[in-house]
Amino acid sequence: MPKSPANNRPSRRHVLIDAGIYLPSIRKDGVGEIVVGVDCSGSINRRQLGLFQDELNSIISERRPQRVHVLYFDTQVHNAAIFEQGEPITLEPVGGGGTSFCPCFEYIEENSLQPQALVVFTDLEGCFPDAAPNHPVLWAATKDHSAPFGEVIPMAAA
């Protein structure tokens, strides 16, 4: 039987035993582009922001995204920072008012971003958009609340 290329392991889903063909698996270093929303409203304290920082570093370490857009928001996006793969990310929150998640979704649309996912670090106390976007949304939440779409991932309360 022919061997697969040296750098790629055979894909179990693409082995054609009867034909004696092994197709290489696709190995990808990290995910593509992600957007991270950091809730900087008045209901978020310094301890929670520290927790957001730790969780973001964990995501970056595990998933190795090619590019990370960090949006600091309350009722608007006050600042946006872009980090390339391997760059250290330190959160620099800006805001302090109420909370609306809508500006994060508007920012993605206005800037024609097509993220692999939007991860929002929040206490889930705010206004949500009327419709779910075309990309996955993960709500990393410090409080036990629900969201109208996406997946809520509970974080340790801070």
Features:
six-stranded mixed β-sheet; single chain; globular; disordered N terminus; 2 domains; Rossmann fold
Query: Given the helix and strand composition, which structural class is it?
Result: alpha/beta
Radius of gyration: 19 Å
The strands making up the biggest β-sheet line up spatially as 5-4-3-6-7-8
Could you describe the largest sheet, including whether it forms a barrel? 6 strands, mixed
What is the terminal-to-terminal distance? 57 Å
Shape: globular
SSE string, helices as H and strands as E: EEEHEEHEEE
The proportion of residues forming helix, as a percent range, comes to 10-25%
Residue windows where pLDDT falls under 50 for at least 5 positions: 1-17
Mean pLDDT: 85
| Total strand segments | 8
Q: What is the fold named in CATH at topology level of the largest domain?
A: Rossmann fold
| Strand coverage percent | 25-35%
Query: Any idea how many domains?
Result: 2
CATH architecture of the largest domain: 3-Layer(aba) Sandwich
CATH superfamily of the largest domain: von Willebrand factor, type A domain
Name of the CATH class of the largest domain: Alpha Beta
Number of helices: 2
What do these coordinates show?
The chain has 158 residues and is an alpha/beta fold. It folds into two domains: 1-29, no CATH class; 33-154, von Willebrand factor, type A domain (Rossmann fold), CATH 3.40.50.410. It contains two helices and eight strands, in the order E-E-E-H-E-E-H-E-E-E. It has helices at residues 46-63, 102-110, and strands at 10-16, 21-24, 33-39, 67-73, 77-84, 117-122, 137-141, 151-154. A six-stranded mixed beta sheet has the order 5-4-3-6-7-8, with helices on both faces. Strands 1-2 form a two-stranded antiparallel sheet. Strand 3, helix 1 and strand 4 (67-73) form a beta-alpha-beta unit. The longest helix has 18 residues, at 46-63. It is globular and about 35 Å long.
